Structures are given as C-alpha cells and as structure tokens.
Amino acid sequence: MENTNSDMERLYAETFQSIEEGTILPGRIISVKQDGVIVDIGYKSEGFIPAEEFSDDERKSLRPGAELEVYVVSIRDAEGVVKLSKERASKIKVWDVLEKALQSGTLVSGVITEKTKGGLTVDIGGVRAFLPGSQIDIRMVKDVGSLIGSRMDFRILKINHKRSNIIVSRRAVVEEERAKLKGETIGKIREGALLEGVVKNITDYGVFVDLGGIDGLLHISDISWGRITHPSEIFSVGDRIEVIVQKFDEAQERITLGYKQKSQDPWEKVEERYPAGRKVEGVVASITDYGVFVKIEDGLEGLVHISEMDWSPKMRHPSKVLSIGETVEAVVLKVDRAERKLSLSIKQTKPSPWDIISRQYAVGQRIAGKVKSLTDFGAFIGLPEGVDGLLHISDLSWTKHVKHPSELLRKGQKIDVVILSMDPDNEKMALGLKQLEPDPWTETIPSRFRLGDVVKGRALRITDFGIFVELEGGVEGLVYSSEIVQPSGEEKIKEEDILEARIIKVDAAERKIGMSMKNLRRSEG
User: Distance between CA 524 and CA 286 in Å, rounded?
Assistant: First the structure.
C-alpha cells in the first residue's frame, strides 16, 4: 500500500510540474455535468470548467469529444482537479488579437451593447471597449441609442492593460471609407453626369447629397419645376436619389446638383399644350387669400383668382369653396411662358348667369329681388339667378329728396323693381323703384300744385338754403331761406312743425316746388 501511494504522489507531482498556471492549453470535453464540464487537457489529471462560464445556448451545444481552448486557473484543488476557464482563454486570445490590430492598424469587428457616459460600449469577442461620442461618426448622431445591437468595424486607438481599458473609433473607419470613395467619385464627376447619392442633410435653402465620400448641394430652386416652400416636401434624410451634376469646382471641391433637370421643363411649349380657352383638370395644390393654385401636371400650376372662382358677386374666401387635394375643372384664360404664369377660371366652366339674364329679361320688365346691401349711392338688389343689380338713390322716389337708401329700404327686404338697363358684357344692370309708378310730375303734380296756392306741410329738413316741407301725397317743396318767416318769440321753426306757405314756383322739368312764407304774409296784409 505504501508503494502504491508513493507512486500516485509521484505521478501527480510529474503531472503538475508540467502544467503552469496562466497558460492556455487545448482541451477535449470528456463529460458535461450539471455544475460544469470535465475537460481532458492531455495530462493524467482532468480539468474542470464551471457551468456559469457557458451561456444557455452554449450549454445546449456542448458534447463529449468537442475541442476547446482553456486557461489554467489553478493546478490542483482539494480533490486533485485542475481548475480551468474557457472565458479567460477567449479573452486572452482576443487581447492578443487586439494588440496585433493596434500595431498593424487593422480593423476589428464588434457589437455596440449599451450607452455609457460620454459614448458607447462595444463588445469585441467578449472584451469590452469604449467608443467615445466624438468617435462615433464624422457627423453628430442625434439618437445614439438606435445604434445599440449594431455590428460594425472599428479602429483601435489605445489599449491600457492595467486598467483593462480599450478605446476604439468608428469615425476613423468612416473617414477612411469616405476618402477611398471620394477618390472613386471624383473620377466620375463631370458636368451633366447622372449620379446616385443619399440625402444627408436638409436645410431651408436646399439638400446636401452624399455622392460617395463627397457632398453636393441641391438648391431648392433646382428641386422641382413647380413651387415648393421647403425641400422636406420632396425629400427625407436617407433617401437615395439620382441627381445631375450642373457645376463642379474641383479646386474648392464644390458640386452644384440638379434634380428637376432630369425631366423637361413643363413650361416649354406651354402655349401649344394649353392654349387659351382649353378645359383642363387639376388638383388644388395651395390656397391663398387671393385665389387657389391648381396643379395641372408635375411642375405646372395655374392660378384661379378669387374673382374667377364663382359667378356670385359676393366673394367668399377660397378656403370656403375648395380644399387642398380636391380635383377641379378649369378653363385656361391666359398663358405667359416668360413669366411662368398660367391664369385659370373655374366659373367659366359653368353657364354665366348674365347670359341667362340677357335671354330671360328685357329693359322695362318688372322683376322681384331682395335688398343685398345699402350704400350712400344706392342699393344692390340680388336676383334669383345669383347676380346683383344696382338701384341708384336717384331712382328710389319721384317726389322725395332721399339722402340715404336706408330711409326707404332695409337689408333683406323683398321688393319689386323695373329693369332700366342691362350690360351683360360688363356684368351690370340698372334698376328702378320709382318707375313702378307713373311720373307724378308729368301726370298730377302740375294740376294739384299751382302758382299762388297756399299749402300746408310738415317740416322735414332744415338746411342753409331753406326748409324742405312734405306736402300732400308725399310731394316735397322748398321754402327758400330768403322767404322764411320765424315765429315771434325765442322759439324758431324746427323739424316736424306744420308750416303754411304760398307756392311761388312750379318747375316740372326740374321737379321742384318753391314756396314763400313772406309772400303769404304780404297777401294776408
């Protein structure tokens, strides 16, 4: 027994003398147990790797006979088993690879795992590295969190073994890639060349397009033949687009691009394609206070002025009539290729109410309407056909001196009028109210009011040149200022007073009756 024990101890001693802690050895899995993996490392004693060093997926794939590299943690524990580590072996190998990559300048691949203060953490084969914010890209990345989970190539900037610290850069890789692409791209750039690029940035004045290592500017004026207010109406960051090189300043590395130039200018030969009088169909593109812009085709819009939207004389705001995106039919009124202006009319697609009126109505005809509005010079009367006629203040009454139409009319009132004149071409119609009755100045007034007659009436208005008096039948006469006799006492004549006077003038042509209070007194005397 003693000899046997001595042989065993000698065998263990020989085995462990040949194994050094901290070395990496090849191994072969003998068995997989609940708490770990037994590994044959080519010596009399077997090694053991704790189960926690393997992920769940790795444990499922472990099979006896599989080979792996291990790190010798300790030579012999209490049970005579060599303690091994797969994880440390992997990390050491990765560190060796990283050292060589730093010296040679080669790239390493890693996965961005999380955000940290000032940057991101990168997993390179199980080794954590730090990616500073300034080294993420050549331009600022607004949402660095969106990069988590991405696998990328990095350049190693610095390794500190004592602190187990590794600093990497993605920006250096991008700069190198862009420099290489730039050389290739510049070789393709020439005026008129059609290139593919990616929208890199959008500003108020245009779009910057990455052509491959070098950027070009696509000005807002070169985006569309039509009207746009901001480049974002057409493009989004990341869009891949085709552009034309318009100008290339190689010394300054400035590239001016064009997008609309890929298609023909729609304003070329526009007069031939859209002559005046032609009916067109389009979509409402924008609405303003003075009208709407209608898109007829890409890059070609026409203006429907507010006055050309409807035959109604009452102008409503265009937004009350049409909506953006609505399809409309219009008639071309005028084309100006030099000014790039196209005038359209929607109302011309419908029958003109003035045409209807010219066929249905005649001068002298009695018609019904409604008072639409009152002005100092008359009233506008709305007709069923949707047009307004003017009832002038002078055509309100044969006998009254009307100062304002509101003395006889109110808004919304229904009245009968007579057509005095029509001018459909200029959309005008004159109406009369007093013409509903015969002219009393040629019929009855001269026989009812004769020179020398003494009459009574109510004072209507007192003016500098006399007093207007309402006589029988609504006829007005004027007591001249030189013929007024004020009553005795302090009180003077006021409106609504009943006055007595003698007629001293009747002028049917001028429609005037002149009166005198003095003449009355002289006669009485």
Answer: 81
DSSP H or E segment with residue 271 = helix 270-273
pLDDT tens digits, one per residue of 379-422: 999 888 888 899 999 999 888 888 899 989 999 999 999 999 99
Per CATH, domain 105-175 is 2.40.50.140: yes
Which whole-number Å values give the CA distances from 522 to 501, 502, 517, in the listed order? 11, 11, 9
Using DSSP, state whether 494 is helix, strand or coil: coil
What are the pLDDT digits (tens) for 138-190?
877 778 888 999 899 999 998 886 656 889 989 989 888 888 878 778 878 88
Fold topology of 24-104: OB fold (Dihydrolipoamide Acetyltransferase, E2P) (2.40.50)
The third-level CATH classification (topology) of the domain covering 353-436 is OB fold (Dihydrolipoamide Acetyltransferase, E2P) (2.40.50)
Q: Are the C-beta atoms of 472 and 503 separated by less than 8 Å?
A: no
One-letter amino acid at 74 equals S
CATH number for 270-342: choose from 2.40.50.140, 3.40.50.12780, 1.10.760.10, 3.90.180.10.
2.40.50.140
CB–CB of 421/391 below 8 Å? no
Token pair belonging to 395? 């055509």
Predicted pLDDT of residue 91: 75
Q: Top-level CATH class of 187-262?
A: mainly beta
Place of tokens 């263990």: 12
| pLDDT score, position 16 | 47
Bridge partners (DSSP) listed for residue 83? 48, 74
Q: Which of 48-52, 424-428, 462-466 has the lowest mean pLDDT?
A: 48-52
Helix (H, G, I), strand (E, B) or coil at 512: strand
Q: Which residues make Cβ contacts (< 8 Å) with residue 183, sequence separation at least 6?
A: 213
Reported as a pLDDT band with limits 50, 70 and 90, residue 79 is low
Among candidate residues 117, 218, 211, 132, the one with its CA nearest the CA of residue 172:
132
pTM of the model: 0.46
H-state helical runs in 418-495? 440-443, 445-448
Q: From 371, 279, 369, select the one nearest 330 (Cα to Cα).
A: 279
Beta-carbon count within 10 A of 216 CB: 25
Pairing between β-strand 428-432 and β-strand 388-392 as defined by DSSP bridges: parallel
